[in-house]
């Protein structure tokens, strides 16, 4: 058993060295495509962070002062619910201190200076307002102006068209990067496929002899399939390292931006990058397995 395992890995290594140029090309292509895949997920997560406070159709946020009384909070809620032609009362949300602080940690992940300034003593609570289908931008703007003067209200945020722009941009960038990633992944599969085909063709006489002495098809295929799997694994590891470096570099750079730049929420630091690493490595191995497995089965009778 040990001799078979030793033979399999020895033959795999020998095949890698014989086709070094093709192997490097396949690994580089797989790395670039998997890196794009990882960066696409990071970018989309950044957009999700940026839009998290506006999820669920929220288009207006009323921030309450930290020292607002229960009576003032109730009066604001009643005032919002008293405009059924503008506000969907069934979807009105109130975020207390804990919920507001949890959201702030996502929004200001790239701005530790601002995050340190937010404490239970100065953190505002908030009402998240979902407008009705009939509510126009003008009505929401008028509502936001009217609420700014109410007792206990700290500020009212109404971004208007900006949310639509961010949502459209997220879809525009995400779809196109995923298409490029898919194209490069197919290229990586074809390169691995061609590498295995070339290796099997170069060793066709050895394969014929092995079959004559009773070697099974799986015994012959296994070194070639492991070769492709290793190429995909190496590509995934390289892509993961590059993706983590890019994310760390971006995070460090954003910390130097002005707090009002709005890029703080595009920092992803909640363990999500490590989850992306898992999928990158898994996808890399899958790409290698598909390319090598197909070639090893197709060109066994050389």
Architecture blueprint of SSEs:
Layout: H1 2-18, H2 20-51, E1 60-64, H3 70-81, E2 93-95, H4 97-107, H5 112-117, E3 125-129, H6 137-147, E4 153-157, H7 162-202, H8 204-212, H9 217-254, H10 272-298
Antiparallel strand pairs: 1-3, 1-4, 2-3
Helix pairs in contact: 1-9, 2-7, 2-9, 2-10, 7-9, 7-10, 9-10
Q: Helix coverage percent of residues?
A: 55-70%
* CA distance, first residue to last residue: 27 Å
Q: Give the biggest sheet.
A: 4 strands, antiparallel
Low-pLDDT ranges: none
Structural class: mainly alpha
Number of helices, counting only DSSP H or I runs of 4 residues or more:
10
Computed CA radius of gyration, to the nearest angstrom: 28 Å
Strand order, main sheet: write it out: 2-3-1-4
Look at the structure and give the mean pLDDT: 77
- State the order of secondary-structure elements, H for helix, E for strand: HHEHEHHEHEHHHH
Overview of this protein structure:
- It is elongated and about 90 Å long.
- With 302 residues, the protein is mainly alpha-helical.
- The two termini are 27 Å apart.
- Strands 2-3-1-4 form a 4-stranded antiparallel β-sheet.
- The mean pLDDT is 77.
- The protein has helices spanning 2-18, 20-51, 70-81, 97-107, 112-117, 137-147, 162-202, 204-212, 217-254, 272-298; strands spanning 60-64, 93-95, 125-129, 153-157.
- The longest helix has 41 residues, at 162-202.
- The chain has 2 domains: 2-52 and 164-298, no CATH class; 60-158, 2-Layer Sandwich (Alpha-Beta Plaits), CATH 3.30.70.3040.
